[in-house]
Amino acid sequence: MQLSDGVISLRPIETSDAEAHLAGADAELMRRLGVGRGSLDGVIAYFEECVASWAAQGPLRTFAITACDDATLVGTLDIRTGRSYLAAGQADLAYGIYPAWRGHGYATKAVILGCRYLARTGLAEEVVLRIDPANAASVGVARRARFHYLRSSDEPGEGPLDWYIQAL
């Protein structure tokens, strides 16, 4: 399965993407995605969990974001359902674009493709982006992808987050 808009593509993550992921991501992205900046083995273990969730049709769907022209891995996109902080019918969407690829609109394109995937599969009726309010680039992505501000939260261990939503 692959989704594309002609500029980027989304495909299920593979364990073979781990080296490119580790090489492309910076420390801040690894922190936000919840994957320790540690070893290749740690990233492989995380990607194995993602692959297993895909196979079991579980609550986590992790996509590789690739450039259409040469299939270079430029980031990742996670879709999670069934989280305790989500209402029924909601999915949490998180993305990360590697520093060398930022500023080209790939994050907005990936969010839009992720929403199309959710609408097509019926996994959710509404998408939530939870964004650090200090992350102006991600707030811009939410606005360009036509998400609407819902509320702010300050969860232990997560810090302040602004919630943006979009109905599918």
From TrEMBL:
User: What region holds the N-acetyltransferase domain?
Assistant: 8-166
For this UniProt record, give its keywords in alphabetical order, as a comma-separated list.
Answer: Acyltransferase, Transferase
Recorded E.C. number(s)?
A: 2.3.-.-
| PROSITE patterns named among the record's database cross-references | GNAT
Answer whether the UniProt record assigns the keyword Acyltransferase to this protein.
yes
Q: Which domain of life is it from?
A: Bacteria
Keyword Protein biosynthesis belongs to the record: no
Q: Which GO terms describe its molecular function?
A: acyltransferase activity
Which InterPro entries does the record cross-reference, listed alphabetically?
A: Acyl_CoA_acyltransferase (IPR016181), GNAT_dom (IPR000182), N-acetyltransferase (IPR051531)
- Record PANTHER family: GNAT FAMILY, PUTATIVE (AFU_ORTHOLOGUE AFUA_3G00765)-RELATED-RELATED, N-ACETYLTRANSFERASE DOMAIN-CONTAINING PROTEIN
Q: What is this protein called?
A: GNAT family N-acetyltransferase
The species is Nocardia xishanensis
